[in-house]
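Contributing new records

If you add data, match the layout below exactly. Sequence lines come first and carry their own label; structure lines follow with theirs. Keep one chain per record. Anything else will be rejected by the validation script.
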Amino acid sequence: MLNISYSLASIQGNHFKCVLQVASVTFDLLLLLVLGSYLIVLFSFLVITTRGLDDLISLFRRPPSRKVKTA
């Protein structure tokens, strides 16, 4: 009887460790998401205040294609 209760407690302890690992990874991913969002907002704010909204939009536009004129 002692071995059965010990193994059951061991399984529950391992399950708890697994739950903590999942929670830790989830927290890390959420923290990275928040940090990335903050950096994007900060970058956008700095570009808008120093260059203007048009320059921020032009950063993401495709450059005009260069057509070579044949002689």
